[in-house]
Amino acid sequence: MRIIFAGTPDNAAKTLESLLASGLDVVGILTREDARIGRSRVLTESPVASVGSKHGIEVRKSNSISVAVVEWMRGLEAQLGIVVAYGAIFGPDVLETPELGWINVHYSLLPEYPGAAPVQYALLDGKEATGVTIFRLDEGVDTGPILASKLLEIGESMNASSLLLALTSVGSNLLLETLHNFDQRLDNQIVQERSPLIRVAKKLSRKDAKLDFGKSARVVHNMVRAMNPEPVAWFETNEMSVRVLETRVSNVTGIPEGEAVLNSGELLVGCSDVALVLLLVQPAGKAVMAGADWFRGLRQQKLLLS
């Protein structure tokens, strides 16, 4: 089967590598254009583009689906398209281009959490499990018929980065199983029933990542997990912005909401029920450090965080 692959970030690159390692015939790759990343703003190709170049596969770089891109796709004469986090919506002309259409790897158990940030929303909501869904693309947002799905338990210490890594592994294997039994999966596809109450996992911004210590410690802890590695949870104190990368829910009570103090060598901040331990923080313009070390450097007995 001739396959065209569309994707951009690391998890898409890992999925592509698994397809190639299994001997599948990927005849073309669509990815986003080179972007400037890091503090040095070096122009860098996407992880998917790097994999394609390494394997000698034709790579097309585009941030949108132009007429020229569609014509390029048609010229590949691919039978099936696979998309993993490409970063653009496909219109009817693209969806109809491969003979068998397109399938997508989505990191939730659809119809739950359609949208751009399903991994983060599962953590935000304190889910104990999530999963991966392989489905056929249509013109909706993650609304196409389901070909396969698999559940994954969420570990207590997982953040968005580690959870995505685990889901990528599960998704890659599930994708291969789906492709090896593709006709059977098509015959048994399940039409999604989408409730209007379903929570859409919209992309999260820095504004969404501001911590509110008036909520329970578990809710704040889950936000920290969900926002790591991006956009990263944060708070303000004395007009200084501080990122929070790792926390732990304690059993300490009696600390006022938003008040930070040292307790048994750890930095605790009061929430609406119990205190939250700030394990790793990053003050603006500085390196990541232990929360207690940051607090000691301020030479304060207590501090109000907002």
Automatic annotation (TrEMBL):
Pfam families xref list: Formyl_trans_C (PF02911), Formyl_trans_N (PF00551)
GO cellular component: cytosol
Name of the protein in question: methionyl-tRNA formyltransferase
Any one GO MF annotation of this record: methionyl-tRNA formyltransferase activity
Species of the source: freshwater metagenome
Annotated InterPro entries: Fmt, Formyl_trans_C, Formyl_transf_N, Formyl_transf_N_sf, Formyl_transferase-like_C_sf, Met-tRNA-FMT_C, Met-tRNA-FMT_N
Family matches, as PANTHER family: METHIONYL-TRNA FORMYLTRANSFERASE (PTHR11138), METHIONYL-TRNA FORMYLTRANSFERASE, MITOCHONDRIAL (PTHR11138:SF5)
CDD domains: FMT_core_Met-tRNA-FMT_N, Met_tRNA_FMT_C
Domain Formyl transferase N-terminal, chain residue ranges per copy: 1-178
Family per similarity comment: Belongs to the Fmt family.
